[in-house]
Request: fold
Amino acid sequence: MVPLSYYLILSGILFACGVTGFLIKRNLITIFMSIELMLNGVNLSFVAFAAQWHALSGQIFVFFVMVVAAAEAAVGLAIIIAVYRTRETLNVDQINLLKL
Amino acid sequence: MTPNLHLWLIPLLPLAGAAINGFLGKRSSRQAVSTVALVFSGAAFAMALWVVSQFSSLTLPYIETLAPWIRAGAFQVDFAFYLDQLSLIMLLVVTGVGFLIHIYSVGYMWEEGGFYRFFTYLNLFMFFMLTLILASNYLLMFIGWEGVGLASYLLIGFYFLRDSAASAGKKAFIVNRIGDFGFLIALFLLIKHFGSLNYAELAHVISPLHIETHAGLFTAIGILLMVGAAGKSAQIPLYVWLPDAMEGPTPVSALIHAATMVTAGVYMVSRSHVIFDRAPSAMTVVAIIGTLTAFFAATIGITQTDIKKVLAYSTVSQLGYMFLGCGVGAFSAGIFHLMTHAFFKGLLFLAAGSVIHAVGGEQDMRKMGGLRTKIPWTFWTMTAGTFAIAGIPPLAGFFSKDEILWQASRVSLIYWGVGVFTAFLTSFYMFRQWFITFFGEYRGEAHDSHEHGGHGHDSHGDDHGHGHGGVHESPALMLGPLVVLAILSVVGGWVGIGNRFENFLAPVFHSTATISADSFDAPAVSTESTSPESLSPASKSEESGKNTELLFTAISVGAGVLGFLLAWQLYYRRPELPTEIAAKLGGFYYTVLNKYYVDEIYAAVIVKPLIAFSSAVLWQGIDRGIIDATLDGSAEGAREVSDSMRHMQSGNIRSYAGWVAAGAACIIVFMAWMAVGTR
Amino acid sequence: MHLILFLIFGAVCVAGAVNLLLQHHPIDSALSLVVVMGALAAEYLLLGAEFVAAVQVIVYAGAIMVLFVFVIMLLNAGEEARSGGSRVAWIFGVPGMLIGSILMAWILLKHSGTSRVEIGALPGSPQDIGWLLFHDYLLPFEVTSILVLIAIMGAVVLAGHAQSQTRAIEKKEG
Amino acid sequence: MNVGIFILVSVIKIALVFFILLTAVAYTVWLERKVVGHMQNRWGPTRVGPFGLLQPAADGVKFLFKEDLTPPHVHKTLYIAAPMIAVAFALTSIAVIPFGNWVVLGDIYTPLQITDVNIGLLIILGLTSLGVYGIALSGWSSNNKYSLLGGLRASAQMISYEIALGLSLVGVLILSGSFSLREIVDAQAGHFWGFIPKWNIFYGGQFVAFFIYLMAAYAETNRIPFDLPEAETELVAGYHTEYSAMKFAMFFMAEYANMITVGCLATILFLGGWHGPIFGPYILQTILPVFWFVAKVFVFMFIYIWVRGTLPRFRYDQLMAFGWKFLLPLAIANLVITAFIVALKS
Reply:
């Protein structure tokens, strides 16, 4: 028996780590991974709530989040590759022109 | 059992045609474009015929509700179609004549640019016109009403590279707006006082009301409706756009500005007969406007030299007749004239188009003449039309015009007198046109040198467009509709023999007769005498009226014949006379020639002050001084604020993320605070 | 038992997430993320969401993260460069984030009541999930399929852009 | 059955299965050398033991005692971890493979399978999809351009073919209605038309799926004709160029263990698992299913080797085109048709 709040706090920690990563990391890919971490944190809370409310819908939402994450990863990484081709750097602090 | 008619298909078919041509037509061949246009308008006609075949098994009025549209409390407007005898006749006229003119247009427009555009607009027009006549409420009718205005604008300005065409289109649009304004206010009044715009509901609500108690309201609504009708149907004082509308291609003039759209006003007034029956003053206004328009337009028509302008003024004049009919309560006579007019005026325009086509784009009658032998088909069809409009029995125009005049005479002999005189004028200017165009010597200069070549073209040159030398008959594609319409112009009036037409329409205007009989007599007499139920009490007056009617008929036929004789005398036997007469009349002649300077008066009295006011107060004062100044000021302020704020926009993604995180934190703190606060 | 397993995998999760932040090389971060995802899959199993757990491993760890590793290898991304970065992020972002998460944790602990979950609290069997997915959530499912399709096209266009451009230039010159 | 006996039985099963698996891995290598040798008109290993049967043992000893070289400029942690990752995931997936019926020994009633989970197939898919990390990381951490290329190729190829592989399995899943490998096998028991076994490859019409599975499996295990990641002629052995001794042996083991897993999976999903003619006394009835299972896996392995001895290697773009433009649409079509037929039947 584990209180639901533990799961939620774990999910919150993961999310917070993701946000922090987004804020402090400089590598574009790492930043992108931080986003994935945030999504994972959210997924955990979805599953936890699904267990609490005995509603499978929560798990369904996880699938949708995963699909969106996959799509996002595909497009995002393609963008990263395109950015790298033109700017030859992955440092976000140097990618600040809002255009390629 | 009432079969499902699928009325919605009828307007939607031309719309589909318009959509296909509009989206794909640019890259399609002319054959494909014309096939699409003809198939869809033909299908609409076929549907209409099918509806006729089903008509006897219908319980009328047949109402087909497609979808709810506006639901606001008790007020409710649906997308619904309404079919009764009146809309059936309109449906047949619009789809039938429309289809014929589509066929004609394929031949007429073949050489023109923007072929697909033309048919897109034409089909679009059909869609809106059919919506207008099949609508089951005033709002849907108003959609069609505005839509035909749009189509009309687009088609008048079809040759938009020509400045005159573009401004004619604008003129038509703007003048129509004035009428629509009246129409809209009438609708608002209806909504306010009766809470509905459906014909059926309105009839139900209005029928028990007594004229004494609501006369003012009904008069107001009636006159406002008449303003709308005057705009659309080119009545005084809003008729000025129609002659200019002749800038459009001739089939357009035939379809929109003669046969169908301009008659929408008559249709609308007839459709509103419940209201007009209770507004005698409004009826009088309608009748007077109709009479005046008929007369003045006819006088202008006498002096015109442009073949299409003559027909345009003739249209205005004939529309005046229809309004006269409606104004004296003879709605079915008005509709009857509407139908026959659609036949012969459509025919006349198409024939005029054929003439123009034949002489290579020339529209001035003075440069024609002697065309009788060169374009015999056109000549004979045009002849049928001319005789029909002149009211020579037994052609179509005779029956309908005579019916209107007879009904008018029962209200006031003044209407009748002016009407007969107008009939004389009509006959005169139509035969004048006929003689100038087809008799005498050919006066076109441009083609004289090509005369011998022109004959060569005659034998095989059907597919030659205008602008080519030589007078030549139009292709069969154009002549076919001419012949059909000519036959209709000859026999179309026979349906009115023995009041059959009126009896057919009687159920529509029936409520008029029974209700107004006890409260109001004058405009109701006509329908009363024709409706079968009330035949027996009125049979006595019928008996005595028979002789009078014959006398009046004789007089109006006489007027027509007189017109013919005068034209024959002036333009066939002694062609030099008209110039002398014109010289003698001097100023008056020029006044008429310049259309009584109405355009100029409008320009001076309305347009110029309006422009002056707009530019001085609205433009410089309000727009520049207040609106623009406010806008510029706020833009300036925004720029200054942005200048200071843009340092936040460093372009650094992580800074943005920082702002987002800080904002999210603020929201969380706020929510937590709220949550704690509520505990 | 449940609590112990939860704590073990939770600790692995947090350790992986923190490691993601601490590592300077993207590939190390990526691998820590894989660890986080694996541990999360275990947490899902504890909650009874076995299908979600399997999909988490297959899709997240097995596909998305491989894609990340692939891109890191492809671009040969090196150690993170030390650059000034953003003061805003440090001044507002990190404290804001900290405040927010601490508040949330406090609220959750204080106000989430006594609801508890057990091992396998809600068995998410593939049949049930399939039923939900293809009946109740059919429309969202189809919409996401379109989303994925668009994403595929977008990725192809974006990543293939430079090549096609050079190809076009070559064609012009050649 | 109490927990103690359960754990005991499980430990015994695990030990047994892993012993057999490792032996099988070793002897598959021997088998491959032998078979390919005969196909190429050579003898293959003959020196060590009769028919060279002790060759695997000799190889093992050699790997153990070779110098374990770690090149400079490698990313050390990952360099060491990569082969372990590879071999660990390859060996773990055998855990959910059922290779026989239930066994009754006194009051112990246990399946011939380390553990029967109801999402067994997904676990195998998950583990194989994680196996790519071993190869990708080894390629990257070696700091060698050939290795890097090998690693890149491997990850791209395995992601691509995993889709076709997964889709080819869905048809079978639809037919059996379960993710549990044991239930999938059970669904294939019996015959139709009197003599044809009800295997998915016959009864369910999944031969197209089997073909797709076969192709995708070759790509997933980096075998000829899809062994681009370790193409020795162009990449100098690809991702494991820099590896030697036991680390190299781990990759080797991982590859062959994967082959065996894939073979087991093919047997379970398409070839009816342990089903076959069963007769005789009880002891025979227990052993025969295992025998049929092993025999089918063996046939599958033989096809592997046969293909290796016959086919040339694809070009990389051909490989990708084949996977995305042929196998994937084919798998989708197969899935749609299967689903349609099942829907019509029910």
